[in-house]
Structure formats: C-alpha cells, structure tokens
Amino acid sequence: MSIKHYDVVRAASPSDLAEKLTHKLKEGWQPYGGPVAITPYTLMQAVAIEGEPQVGPSSEPDWYYVIVLAGQSNAMAYGEGLPLPDSYDAPDPRIKQLARRSTVTPGGAACRYNDIIPADHCLHDVQDMSTLNHPKADLSKGQYGCVGQGLHIAKKLLPYIPNNAGILLVPCCRGGSAFTQGAEGTFSADTGASQDSARWGVGKPLYQDLIARTKAALQKNPKNVLLAVCWMQGEFDMSAATHAQQPALFTAMLTQFRADLSVFNAQCHGGSAADVPWICGDTTYYWKNTYATQYDTVYGGYKNRESEGVYFVPFMTDGNGVNTATNAPAEDPDIPASGYYGAASRTNGNQVSSNRPTHFSSWARRSIIPDRLATAILNAAGRTSAFISGKAPEIKPSPGGNTPSGPSADTSVRTISLLPAAGEAAAQGWSIKDGGIQLSDGVFKITKQSNKTWSLTHPVDDAITLLTQGGRLTCKFRLSGALTNNQFGLGIYLYTDAPVPDGVAMTGTGNPFLMSYFTQTTDGRVNLMHHRKAGNTKLGEFGDYGNDWQTLELVFTAGSATVTPKLNGVAGPAFQVIKDSLTLGLNALTLTDVTKNAAYGVEIESLVLEINAPAA
Fold first, then answer.
1. Strands in 481-572 per DSSP E
2. pLDDT of residue 53
3. What does the H/E/C string look like for 551-615?
4. How far apart are CA 475 and CA 492, in angstroms?
5. Are the CB atoms for 243 and 292 separated by under 8 Å?
6. Which three-class secondary structure state does DSSP give residue 545?
7. Which one, of 250, 248, 238, lies nearest residue 207 by Cα?
8. Are 142 and 357 in contact (CB under 8 A)?
9. pTM for this predicted structure
10. What is the CB neighbour count within 10 angstroms for residue 614?
11. What is the pLDDT of residue 415?
12. Of 3.30.420.140, 3.40.50.1110, 3.30.1330.20, 3.40.50.720, which CATH number belongs to 60-77+84-322+362-389?
C-alpha cells in the first residue's frame, strides 16, 4: 500500500493494546509490523494509513477529562495576534468546550448554554472576545476574535490520555475581574454570569457561574472526571488599595468550591474534590514591575501551597530569562512574508487594551503558557494509575466528602443516595408505593398509578442530626407533561419524632419537619414551595417550565433550624424549618407527587442526602 501517515500506539498490557488498536482500526489505520516491548511495562505497535484518518462519529470521545478555566484576562483569549485556525490554532475533534454563546462561532451553527461544542482559539468565556477581530483577519477562514491558551493546554495533554477519551474545557473567565473591586453583575441558570460580572468571591455571580458550569460538565456523563482548574487572576486586585485581602478571599472561594462539589467526589481526580489541583498561573512582567509589593502579596499567596493542592506556575520569563512575550508591538511583530500579522497591526478600537504589555501575546498562549500549565497538571494529577496505565479512572458510585455546613473539621459524612450508576433503586435501599420506578437511559423514571399518590422512600434513622451537625440535600430532577397551572411536580419530605435538640430553636407545633417541599407551576414558572399546615410559602423559582433538568440544593446549617436553598445554582434567602403536624416522611426520606390527581411526570438523574456526624 502507498503509505501516507505513520503513528505509534503505546499500552501497558496486551489487552490495553488491543483496545487502543481497535479505535485506530475504526479510523482506517492498519498495523505496521508487530508489537514491541520497549520497556518491561510498555508495549508499542506501529500503525500506518494510506489516506487521511477518518474523523467522524467513530472518533468522538466516549468520556472526558474536564478542565476548568477561570480568572481574568490573562486566563482567556486576550492574545492580539492573528488567529491561525488552519495551523497553530487548529481545533481537534477530541477537544470540546461548554457553550455559552448562541452560536458555536460568530454566524456559525446554533448552540445552547452548556451544550458540548468544539473548542477553538476563542472560547466561550463570560466576556465575549469573538467580535474583537484583527484588522487583517479573514473571517471566512475562521480567523475571528483573539487567541487564548485553553485549546493549547488540551492539545498538550491529549497524548497522555486514553484514545477513547477527550478533554472538555469549561471556560469561566472574565477580563478585569477581581476579588476586591469590580461590579458584581448577575447570574442566571439559563445563561450564566452576565458580561458585566467582574467580582470573584463566594456566592458572587462569577462563582455561581464557575460552580454551576463545572457541575454541568460532570453531569453530562457519569464517566467524566474533573482533572484540574487552571486559574489566572490577581492583576486588578494589585491595583486596589485592598489588595491584601485577595489571598484570603481566594482561599475562601477555593474551600467553598471544593465543598460545593463534594457530591461529585466520585467524578473528581483522586476521588475527592479536595484532591483536584488548582493550577495558578503567573502574570506579565509589566504587573510585577509596576506593583512589586502588591505582586508579592497577591501572587505570593499562590506559592508554597502544594500540600493544599494549589500549584503556582511562573510565566514571567522563558528558560533563558527573557521576558515572556506580550501584546506589545515589538514583542508580537508582523511577518508579512509568512502571512502573519501580530499585535503590531492592531490599533485603537480593536486592541484588548491600550496598555499593551499587560497581556500575554498569542505566541505565548500557544507555547510557554500551555506548556507549563499542562506540565503542572501532569505533575499534580497525571501520576495516577489511570494515567500510568492509560485507562479510564474508576468511578465509584457513592459520593460524599467535605460539606460546608458541619460544625468543625472533625466530621464524617453519611450519605443516602439514588444514583443511576449504582443500579436499581431497590438495590440502593429505596421502596416504591402506588407507582413504578424504572432505570432507563441513565435516569430513574417514576410512573403514577391512576388515582394514587406515589411515594419513594428510604429509611433515615438520624434525621435529627441535620439540626445539630448540618448537612445537604442535592437533587437533579426533571418534570414532564404539558404545562398546567397550579399542577404539582416532585415533593420531598422528611420528619422525625425525636425531640428538638438543646440549643436549636424551632417554631410551630408538632414534630420537627426537616423537609416538606414541593414543586408547582404557576403562571408558567416552576416554583419551590414550603409545605406547611398553617399555609404554604414560596421559597424560590427554578424558571420557566420547559421539561428541563432542574437542580435543587438544601444546605442545613449546624446547630440551628436554618436552611439555605439553591435553585439551579442560585442561592436564595435562608429560611427556618419548623415543627408541624403533617404526616408524610416519618424517619424516611420521601419523594412523592403529592396528590392522587393529575401531576407532572418525574425523572431523577441524581439525589444525595449528606448528614454530617462527629467522627468516631
């Protein structure tokens, strides 16, 4: 045959080699010679192909390593040099991103928020850089916007992950954002943080965007694994008088992020959100020269924290001590003979900033920055058995781990869960009455019997501990059926006949009701209601009814009756649970459709109740 391309497949065992070769054969490759043992632990097989490898549905990844990108402008597409999508910035079919804009590229295919779409040089960050075109750009060739490093980080990592895996980037960056100054903006579960959001911190819209999109990436596939967070931020804090507050505010946000992701521990590197490394990148020489003292405080706060899973990556200079190139015209000049035009060709109106050395160049974002970030990821997370063997990490179905509502660090967490990955509901300890439950297509579908109210229950013998030690309920569900005003959907109930603990104040008469909530539609909106004998109250809205997935979180504060609801990642006002004389859910977490009359269909993708308890 007339060979056009060669490649090499490496594996740790004959079975691994067979699996990887299968993927290659589907793409049109053929073995070239026989397998060779290049080390006692590594087999190698050469392959060849006559034409071009097939790139189509067969080469789509089966699952993804998830990498979150967050911070401010130097974390995103602020490189001013001409994008090169036909060469240096060429996309790869195994590298995707979570969508944010309404089209994949300007004027391109339509997409929706949090869809999985191809990743390119200008990712879907909070700030949209796709319209800031280079004056020499040929938009018909896809040379739109500016250049970031996200695609290139992923390209550096591809050779080290299984052939059936891809990398899913989660872009959450916003230029000019800081912890100590900037507008807060707003957050919507349907569109994410608004473009004017410029303030990081626990509970801020940028944080809500970060945590919600990270969860969305993991919920796309139970095999997906959160590998790392790439964080580059600090410049705008250095220019504030309150810059010294930045390190503590960053640490608080990091702690909250890991706590909020604890329900996804099984899908995190190392089996815990606390083990996912935060790779914290440096800034340009301009900032250090201009704010030397502030630099030591802000960027120094990222250093020497490896024991906490925080890794600082220097970018100030290259291996020869030369300053890493920025958008300064002399550092990214035009090369007309090669058809390349750099930051030097940009003028006011199409520059990312008039202060050119404040941002790394396009070339730096294709080379030194992704090189060092990818190396840091591999050093921090790439020496696991999964990476060494070239296999997918083992995903264990039982979540758990850290939760922010415990009274001290000396806590353990007991979990009750309903997860498709763990098998049938009955095998997980759940019982259905007056209805049916079926595991299909990765979700639990609950069916209603005529003129009956279904209930799905799991025993809870320590419900009162939610008041003393705190905990969390997380449920992702979907309602189905035609919109009907005032119709009920999913209800969640739990109460106990144990006495109210000393030191906890509860109002009302009857037994302590930890949960008595139901969903209901009014005026086309899906509402969360607090069921109370004395009169129901509205706790919040999920948004317009549309058969979409909804996420409910209820965070119980230790030593009190206070509960904070989060609807699709948006925290609502805290409220007090009460004593009541309702009769549903005694010592059992109970899911129900509330009424024997017509109600919405209910599907459950995941449910986890975490109850904190003092460590034994």
1. 488-495, 511-522, 525-530, 537-544, 549-556, 562-567, 570-571
2. 61
3. EEEEEECCCCCEEEEEECCEECCCEECCEECCCCCECEEEEECCCCCCCCEEEEEEEEEEEEEEC
4. 10
5. no
6. coil
7. 250
8. no
9. 0.61
10. 13
11. 82
12. 3.40.50.1110
Q: What is the mean pLDDT for each group of 10 consecutive residues in the chain (616 residues)?
A: 64 63 77 66 71 57 96 98 96 96 95 95 98 96 97 95 94 97 93 96 94 94 94 97 95 92 90 94 97 97 95 94 96 96 94 96 97 95 82 58 33 75 83 94 91 96 92 94 95 96 93 97 96 95 90 93 91 93 95 96 93 67
Looking at residue 305, its amino acid is R
Nearest to 326 by CA among 310, 313, 309, 343: 343
d(CA 252, CA 247): 9
Q: Which two tokens stand for residue 353?
A: 């900033």
Secondary structure (3-state) at 17: helix
Burial of 565-575, coded b for 16+ CB within 10 Å and e otherwise, reads bbbbbbbeeee
Per CATH, which fold does 411-614 belong to?
Answer: Jelly Rolls (2.60.120)
Instruction: Check residue 3 and give its pLDDT.
Output: 57
